[in-house]
Amino acid sequence: MPARLKYHFEPARGWMNDPNGLIYFKGKYHAFFQHNPYAPVWGPMHWGHAVSDDLLTWKELPIALYPDQPYENSGGCFSGSAVEKDGLLYLFYTSVSHELGQTQSVAVSEDGIHFQKYAENPILCCPIQGTADFRDPKVIQFPDGYRMVCGSGCGGVGRVLLFASQDLLHWEYQGVLFESRDYGAVLECPDFFVLNGKYVLMFSKIGTVDYAVQFISGAFDGSRFTPLCYSAPEAGPQFYAPQTFLDAQGRRIMIGWLYSWGRPLDTGAEYAGALSIPRVLTMENGRIWNYPVDSAVPLLKESDAMLEIQNDFIGVHGTSVGIALDPGDSLRDLAVLRDTKTIEVFINSGRYSFSYWFSC
């Protein structure tokens, strides 16, 4: 049996991928996640659940969502998000069925542990005819109500779709928030939030040369997003589908899925996948930076034998994993979080980072 990670959450058994429904609710940090509890491979998607007091030590709880409805009979309960309203916790997720394809549904809880699915699910079908990819709802509270962004794509053009609601149950399509051919045919796991007075769109790129995460900061007038600055501080290659939320201090925290896609399972492994170390997001001149939360800082080292520095490239010795500094920039500081089978590297206070699953 391979060694478990010491500083990262892994499920007791089964498969996990995308973090879902990240939220601080009733004095606890909640991290839900895509989960196949029956085998350490992707399968019928459930929502696993873990809680933490400090974003470093996690306790796994019973499964929050089972694919037990007709509108979830093909693939299950895909990724989504969480929102608190009037003391209740709402989980929004993509329900996948043979009949309807990818739709959006909701479940509600009083205690954050036991959830009741809405009787009128699904609450949203794709508004664009002929589009099969319509998933990963992220709901955000605005002063004038709620917005939802969903990942989509059609004809090789990746899109983020925008919806609006006053009550979290009835949604109106607002149009395409962002679209491009440059990031793959589908923009997965979108997130939309305010940081330093600017709006930030985040999404994951699938089907491109690298599975990576893109940030775009800009302006938003309530329905239209105007991109101003593009950045990709995290180079991966084993960091994908992150989501953000506000912690108890009001900081914007990001957690991603930490795993190597397609790698053979370790001999004897009954589980696969982990959560990345939570990172605080900040902004400098429109660019996003990311750095481990305070509880993880004592674990950081200034160097590691696995790393090598060649001119402006910092990487893992004997691999192509790493990141090149921008022209004119230089290495000022290095912070390394090494676990039993992973390494996360933060360069120049989080202007750059990369994550690698090297096994053990």
Written overview of the protein:
This protein is mainly β. It has one domain: Tachylectin-2, Chain A (5 Propeller), CATH 2.115.10. It is built from no helices and 29 strands. The protein has strands at about 15-25, 30-35, 45-50, 60-65, 75-85, 90-95, 100-110, 115, 135-140, 145-155, 155-165, 170-180, 185-195, 200-205, 210-220, 225-230, 235, 240-245, 250-260, 270, 275, 280-285, 285-290, 305-310, 315, 320-325, 335-340, 340-345, 350-355. The strands form 7 sheets. It has a 5-stranded mixed sheet, with no helix packed on it. Strands 18, 19, 21, 22 and 23 form a 5-stranded antiparallel sheet that branches. Strand 10 (about 145-155) and strand 11 (about 155-165) form a beta hairpin. It starts with 13 loop residues before the first strand and ends with a strand. The model has no long low-confidence stretch (mean pLDDT about 95).
Distance between the termini: 11 Å
The helix fraction, in percent, is: under 10%
The CATH topology annotation reads as Tachylectin-2, Chain A
Q: Please trace the helix and strand order, writing H or E for each element.
A: EEEEEEEEEEEEEEEEEEEEEEEEEEEEE
The CATH homology group name: Glycosyl hydrolase domain, family 43
Which percent band covers the strand fraction?
A: over 45%
In the CATH hierarchy, what is the class? Mainly Beta
Task: Enumerate how many helices there are, as a single number.
Answer: 0
- CATH architecture annotation name: 5 Propeller
Query: What is the mean predicted local confidence, pLDDT?
Result: 95
Radius of gyration: 19 Å
Shape: globular
Count of domain modules: 1
